[in-house]
Amino acid sequence: MKLDRSLSDVCITITDVIEHIFCPRFTYFIHCLGIPQRESRLFKVLKGRKLHSQREKRNVDYVRKKLGVERKELGVYLRSRKLHIRGEVDEVLFFKDGTAAPFDYKYAKSRNFIHRTHRIQLALYSMMIEERYNVPVNRAFICYVRSENSYKEFLVDENLRQKARAIVNEIFEIIQKGYSPEPTRNRNRCLDCCYRRICAYA
């Protein structure tokens, strides 16, 4: 969508996208009403922060060698002028065939599927990597720390890219128009939500 001039310099974060996927009303409470969330005590948040501060100390070179990585960059801050989004990816991997890929750690166990949130997150990282380094990105990797650093690879195709762009557009539409969107259909997410006391849906 085309942004108003007042929002042309606004840049949302990857965290904003993750929270919007969890429930679109996060976007409304944070960006329209200016009500910050209180999540510093949540166990997974604290564990995630500790993980990201220690990720460079973990030895997962065997994974990179197996993938045929030529070089890597750690803790890469990315910002896209096209998407108006920013975030820090754990690693950017560069391969001998001239392509690159995001590699992100998750404090989670590996399942037989990849969460939609993770697919969208890494799709956005992929597009930002392409914009910054001017190299093609057609796949992404997730490393599951609680499963002995096992990893999953998935394709970053145009269909996934379109879904990621659509979510970013939804976020900016809410910010631009200032309306309260429909909440998540998953009522279980409301149980531990930091906005449950002020959300009429909870």
- CATH third-level topology: Lambda Exonuclease, Chain A
The percentage helix is 25-40%
SSE-based structural type = alpha/beta
Distance between the termini: 30 Å
What is the count of structural domains? 1
Largest sheet: 6 strands, mixed
Element-by-element helix/strand order: EHHHHEEEHEEH
Q: What is the count of DSSP helices, taking H or I runs of 4+ residues? A: 6
Strand portion: 15-25%
- Tell me, what's the shape? globular
CATH C-level class: Alpha Beta
Which architecture does the CATH hierarchy give at level 2?
Alpha-Beta Complex
Overall radius of gyration = 18 Å
Total DSSP E strands: 6
* Overall mean confidence score, pLDDT: 86
Show unreliable segments.
none
Annotation keywords:
202 residues; alpha/beta; Lambda Exonuclease, Chain A; 6-stranded mixed beta sheet; 37% helix
Short summary:
This protein is of the alpha/beta class.
Description:
There is one protein chain. The chain contains 6 helices and 6 strands; from the N terminus they run βααααβββαββα. It is α/β, with parallel strands linked by helices and 202 residues long. It has a single domain (5-190), classed as Lambda Exonuclease, Chain A (Alpha-Beta Complex). Strands 1, 2, 3, 4, 5 and 6 form a 6-stranded mixed beta sheet that branches. α1 packs antiparallel against α5 (116-133) and α5 (116-133) packs across α6. It is globular. The model has no long low-confidence stretch (mean pLDDT 86).
Write the layout of secondary structure elements.
Blueprint: E1 12-13, H1 14-22, H2 25-32, H3 43-54, H4 61-67, E2 69-80, E3 85-95, E4 100-106, H5 116-133, E5 139-144, E6 150-155, H6 158-177
Parallel strand pairs: 1-3, 4-5
Antiparallel strand pairs: 2-3, 3-4, 5-6
Helix pairs in contact: 1-5, 5-6
